[in-house]
Amino acid sequence: MARTKSILTEARQIERAVTLINLGARLQVLESETDLSYERLLRLYKEVSGRSPSKGQLPFSTDWFMTWQPNIHASLFLNIHEYLNKTSELEEIDTIIKAYQLYLEQTQSQGLEPQLTITRAWRLVKFVDNGMLTMTKCTKCGGHYVTHPHEIAKHYVCGLCNPPARAGKGRQAGSLQLPSAVARQAATCE
Protein backbone atom coordinates (compact mmCIF):
# COMPACT_ATOMS: atom_id res chain seq x y z
CA MET A 1 0.00 0.00 0.00
CA ALA A 2 1.41 3.39 -0.97
CA ARG A 3 2.07 5.84 1.83
CA THR A 4 0.19 9.12 1.51
CA LYS A 5 1.98 12.41 2.04
CA SER A 6 1.02 14.43 5.04
CA ILE A 7 -0.42 17.82 4.13
CA LEU A 8 0.99 19.29 7.36
CA THR A 9 4.49 18.00 6.61
CA GLU A 10 4.30 19.44 3.11
CA ALA A 11 3.07 22.78 4.49
CA ARG A 12 6.03 22.91 6.90
CA GLN A 13 8.40 22.10 4.02
CA ILE A 14 6.92 24.94 1.95
CA GLU A 15 7.10 27.35 4.89
CA ARG A 16 10.75 26.41 5.47
CA ALA A 17 11.52 26.87 1.77
CA VAL A 18 9.82 30.31 1.72
CA THR A 19 11.84 31.39 4.78
CA LEU A 20 15.08 30.25 3.15
CA ILE A 21 14.19 32.02 -0.11
CA ASN A 22 13.41 35.24 1.77
CA LEU A 23 16.81 34.98 3.47
CA GLY A 24 18.47 34.63 0.05
CA ALA A 25 19.26 30.90 0.00
CA ARG A 26 20.36 29.31 -3.25
CA LEU A 27 18.17 26.66 -4.86
CA GLN A 28 20.69 23.91 -4.01
CA VAL A 29 20.17 24.63 -0.29
CA LEU A 30 16.39 24.31 -0.70
CA GLU A 31 16.82 21.02 -2.57
CA SER A 32 19.06 19.66 0.16
CA GLU A 33 16.89 20.76 3.10
CA THR A 34 13.37 20.02 1.86
CA ASP A 35 11.62 17.05 0.28
CA LEU A 36 9.93 19.22 -2.35
CA SER A 37 10.61 18.45 -6.00
CA TYR A 38 12.98 20.60 -8.04
CA GLU A 39 10.09 21.82 -10.20
CA ARG A 40 8.01 22.89 -7.17
CA LEU A 41 11.01 24.61 -5.60
CA LEU A 42 11.74 26.44 -8.84
CA ARG A 43 8.13 27.65 -9.12
CA LEU A 44 8.11 28.62 -5.43
CA TYR A 45 11.42 30.46 -5.78
CA LYS A 46 10.13 32.50 -8.73
CA GLU A 47 6.85 33.24 -6.95
CA VAL A 48 8.46 34.34 -3.67
CA SER A 49 11.48 36.25 -5.00
CA GLY A 50 10.02 37.42 -8.31
CA ARG A 51 13.07 36.21 -10.23
CA SER A 52 14.83 33.04 -11.30
CA PRO A 53 17.35 31.53 -8.88
CA SER A 54 21.08 32.18 -9.27
CA LYS A 55 22.95 29.67 -11.38
CA GLY A 56 26.29 28.07 -10.66
CA GLN A 57 27.91 25.98 -7.99
CA LEU A 58 27.82 26.70 -4.28
CA PRO A 59 30.96 28.05 -2.62
CA PHE A 60 33.09 25.10 -1.56
CA SER A 61 36.37 26.48 -0.24
CA THR A 62 37.03 26.73 3.49
CA ASP A 63 39.60 29.47 2.79
CA TRP A 64 36.96 32.22 2.58
CA PHE A 65 36.11 31.65 6.25
CA MET A 66 39.75 32.18 7.26
CA THR A 67 40.11 35.77 5.98
CA TRP A 68 39.84 38.50 8.63
CA GLN A 69 36.31 39.96 8.44
CA PRO A 70 34.59 36.81 7.13
CA ASN A 71 36.22 34.85 9.99
CA ILE A 72 34.81 37.22 12.60
CA HIS A 73 31.33 37.07 11.03
CA ALA A 74 31.49 33.29 10.59
CA SER A 75 32.59 32.91 14.20
CA LEU A 76 29.71 35.09 15.43
CA PHE A 77 27.23 33.03 13.44
CA LEU A 78 28.72 29.70 14.50
CA ASN A 79 28.74 30.66 18.19
CA ILE A 80 25.03 31.57 17.93
CA HIS A 81 24.38 28.31 16.07
CA GLU A 82 26.22 26.24 18.67
CA TYR A 83 24.30 27.93 21.50
CA LEU A 84 20.95 27.25 19.83
CA ASN A 85 22.02 23.68 19.08
CA LYS A 86 22.67 23.09 22.78
CA THR A 87 19.64 24.90 24.18
CA SER A 88 16.82 24.10 21.75
CA GLU A 89 15.37 21.07 20.09
CA LEU A 90 15.10 22.35 16.55
CA GLU A 91 15.82 20.46 13.37
CA GLU A 92 19.28 21.31 11.99
CA ILE A 93 18.03 23.56 9.19
CA ASP A 94 15.73 25.42 11.58
CA THR A 95 18.69 25.98 13.90
CA ILE A 96 20.64 27.42 10.96
CA ILE A 97 17.72 29.69 10.03
CA LYS A 98 17.28 31.00 13.60
CA ALA A 99 21.03 31.47 14.09
CA TYR A 100 21.26 33.34 10.78
CA GLN A 101 18.35 35.61 11.72
CA LEU A 102 20.05 36.39 15.06
CA TYR A 103 23.34 36.98 13.24
CA LEU A 104 21.59 39.50 10.96
CA GLU A 105 20.07 41.25 13.99
CA GLN A 106 23.50 41.54 15.62
CA THR A 107 25.26 42.91 12.55
CA GLN A 108 22.46 45.40 11.86
CA SER A 109 22.40 46.60 15.48
CA GLN A 110 26.14 47.34 15.18
CA GLY A 111 25.77 49.09 11.82
CA LEU A 112 27.78 46.39 10.04
CA GLU A 113 27.19 44.88 6.63
CA PRO A 114 26.58 41.14 7.00
CA GLN A 115 29.47 39.23 5.43
CA LEU A 116 27.71 35.86 5.52
CA THR A 117 24.87 34.86 3.26
CA ILE A 118 22.47 32.16 4.41
CA THR A 119 24.06 29.86 1.82
CA ARG A 120 27.57 30.45 3.23
CA ALA A 121 26.24 29.99 6.77
CA TRP A 122 24.63 26.68 5.75
CA ARG A 123 27.89 25.62 4.07
CA LEU A 124 29.87 26.62 7.18
CA VAL A 125 27.76 24.30 9.34
CA LYS A 126 28.31 21.50 6.80
CA PHE A 127 32.08 22.12 6.89
CA VAL A 128 32.08 21.91 10.69
CA ASP A 129 29.89 18.78 10.68
CA ASN A 130 32.34 17.13 8.23
CA GLY A 131 35.42 18.08 10.27
CA MET A 132 36.76 20.48 7.63
CA LEU A 133 36.50 23.44 10.02
CA THR A 134 36.27 23.69 13.79
CA MET A 135 36.08 26.24 16.61
CA THR A 136 39.23 27.16 18.54
CA LYS A 137 39.43 29.18 21.73
CA CYS A 138 41.53 32.37 21.59
CA THR A 139 44.25 32.34 24.26
CA LYS A 140 43.89 36.12 24.80
CA CYS A 141 40.15 36.90 24.82
CA GLY A 142 38.69 33.42 25.38
CA GLY A 143 36.30 33.70 22.42
CA HIS A 144 35.76 30.78 20.06
CA TYR A 145 36.67 31.31 16.40
CA VAL A 146 36.39 29.33 13.17
CA THR A 147 39.69 27.67 12.34
CA HIS A 148 41.08 24.76 10.39
CA PRO A 149 41.05 21.56 12.48
CA HIS A 150 44.85 21.32 12.46
CA GLU A 151 45.27 24.80 14.03
CA ILE A 152 47.48 24.65 17.13
CA ALA A 153 44.98 25.56 19.83
CA LYS A 154 47.60 26.03 22.55
CA HIS A 155 48.85 29.30 21.01
CA TYR A 156 45.85 30.43 18.93
CA VAL A 157 45.15 34.19 18.91
CA CYS A 158 42.05 35.44 17.07
CA GLY A 159 41.88 38.14 14.41
CA LEU A 160 40.36 40.64 16.85
CA CYS A 161 43.19 40.31 19.37
CA ASN A 162 45.88 40.23 16.68
CA PRO A 163 44.45 41.83 13.51
CA PRO A 164 46.38 41.81 10.23
CA ALA A 165 48.30 45.01 9.39
CA ARG A 166 45.63 46.56 7.14
CA ALA A 167 42.58 45.23 8.99
CA GLY A 168 39.90 47.74 9.85
CA LYS A 169 41.58 50.61 8.03
CA GLY A 170 39.25 50.74 5.04
CA ARG A 171 36.63 53.45 4.86
CA GLN A 172 33.93 51.26 3.38
CA ALA A 173 30.60 51.84 5.13
CA GLY A 174 29.38 48.88 7.13
CA SER A 175 32.79 47.21 7.53
CA LEU A 176 34.54 46.48 10.80
CA GLN A 177 36.60 49.36 12.09
CA LEU A 178 39.27 48.86 14.73
CA PRO A 179 39.35 51.55 17.46
CA SER A 180 42.86 52.72 16.46
CA ALA A 181 41.80 53.03 12.81
CA VAL A 182 38.66 54.98 13.77
CA ALA A 183 40.75 57.41 15.85
CA ARG A 184 43.17 57.96 12.93
CA GLN A 185 40.27 58.57 10.54
CA ALA A 186 38.72 61.13 12.92
CA ALA A 187 42.07 62.94 13.22
CA THR A 188 42.47 63.17 9.43
CA CYS A 189 38.93 64.53 9.04
CA GLU A 190 39.51 67.40 11.49
From TrEMBL:
The reply to whether Glycosyltransferase figures as a keyword in the UniProt entry is no
Its cofactor is: Zn(2+)
- Which residues of this UniProt protein bind Zn(2+)? C138, C141, C158, C161
Principal subcellular localization:
cytoplasm
The region annotated as signal peptide is none
**NCBIfam families (UniProt xref):** PRK12722.1
What name appears for this protein in its UniProt entry?
Answer: Flagellar transcriptional regulator FlhC
Q: Which organism is it from?
A: Ideonella alba
